[in-house]
Amino acid sequence: MAGDRAIQEALEVAWPADLAARDERQLLAAGRELLRADATGIGRWQWPTVFGDQGQAIAPAYSRFRIQAAIARKDGGPHRAVVHLVWAGADRGGTYTDGRITDLHFTRTTTKKGVSTWTPRPRT
What we know:
With about 120 residues, the chain is α+β, with helices and mostly antiparallel strands.
């Protein structure tokens, strides 16, 4: 969609890339999944540090959910990052809103085998 492309380009101009391409791809994938889980309730089990250990079903807050644009950038240090997402969706009442903004923060963790992953930081 042309509007989505314009939003994406505006984000990229406002915040020039400062992460390795691989890190940015990992963060964008994780950010999209995390936001989708938050907005729709689907897949929250994958993120217990963010949503807790939920043993019950959650009614989705949004239907017709889509991400319009997303970037990942450093967040104060080499092992911290933020994913900026612009998204749209219709709530349970059917009200559609676009241009919603969500920032998700991540910390890089490294296993004993040297494998590096990005872990979402719990919301405060």
